[in-house]
Amino acid sequence: MGSSAVTGLVVAVAVLAVATVFGVWRNRSDGRLRPVADGPMTMDPAAPRPLPSDDRPATLAADEAHPASEGTLRALGVDPATPVTLLQFSSAFCAPCRVTRRVLADVAGLVDGVTHLEVDAESHLDAVRALDIWRTPTTLIVAGGRIVSRAGGVPAKPQVLAAIAPLLDRAA
């Protein structure tokens, strides 16, 4: 076996290893609801903002110039008076979006005070940019007029129920 064959074999093994690590990471993180740092995502500018915490990932910069605002969420149909809104960004030919729609609609049908809104990402590009949406489906959980959690991919129904339970307790 020549040196070019060995080099090719090493490259192939390296590519397979990197692809495997990426696949495992993607599988573990897909659909997982993560808390959103309390930045400018609030619909009420007078709402108190908790201090940043190391265990809460900062997904958006907390500055006044960020385009995600009350107007963005309201334009998408989010009512700040609704205790919890499950805001789903979808696209036309997205099979996981259909599964997400069923999961979120089931949760909204089971739990009082929860609304499910589905938004076509292609028709709302300004909102997609403002809310830092990178893929479909993406689910945002909005409570008290601010985004508190987000998931890229299909969230599990028990995970959504667990994420909204404390929000509904606070609203009651």
Give the topology, please.
Layout: H1 3-29, E1 34-35, H2 70-75, E2 84-90, H3 95-110, E3 114-120, H4 125-130, E4 138-143, E5 146-152, H5 157-171
Parallel strand pairs: 2-3
Antiparallel strand pairs: 1-5, 2-4, 4-5
Can you describe this structure in just a few lines?
This protein has 172 residues and is of the alpha+beta class. Helices cover 41% and strands 17% of the residues. This is Thioredoxin domain-containing protein.
Give an overview in words:
It is built from five helices and five strands. It is an alpha+beta fold. It has a five-stranded mixed beta sheet. Residues 55-169 form the Thioredoxin domain. Keywords: Membrane, Transmembrane, Transmembrane helix. Residues 33-59 are annotated as: Disordered. InterPro entries: Thioredoxin-like_sf (IPR036249), Thioredoxin_domain (IPR013766).
Task: Determine the strand fraction and express it as a percent band.
Answer: 15-25%
Helix coverage percent = 40-55%
- Straight-line distance between termini: 72 Å
Based on secondary structure, the structural category is alpha+beta
User: How many beta-strand segments?
Assistant: 5
Could you tell me the mean pLDDT?
A: 79
CATH-level-4 superfamily name of the largest domain:
Glutaredoxin
Top-tier CATH class of the largest domain: Alpha Beta
Question: Which strand order do you get reading across the main beta sheet?
Answer: 1-5-4-2-3
Number of alpha- plus pi-helical segments: 5
User: Any idea of the CATH topology of the largest domain?
Assistant: Glutaredoxin
Biggest sheet layout: 5 strands, mixed
Low-confidence stretches: 39-67
Order of helices and strands: HEHEHEHEEH
Shape: elongated
Q: Provide the gyration radius in Å.
A: 19 Å
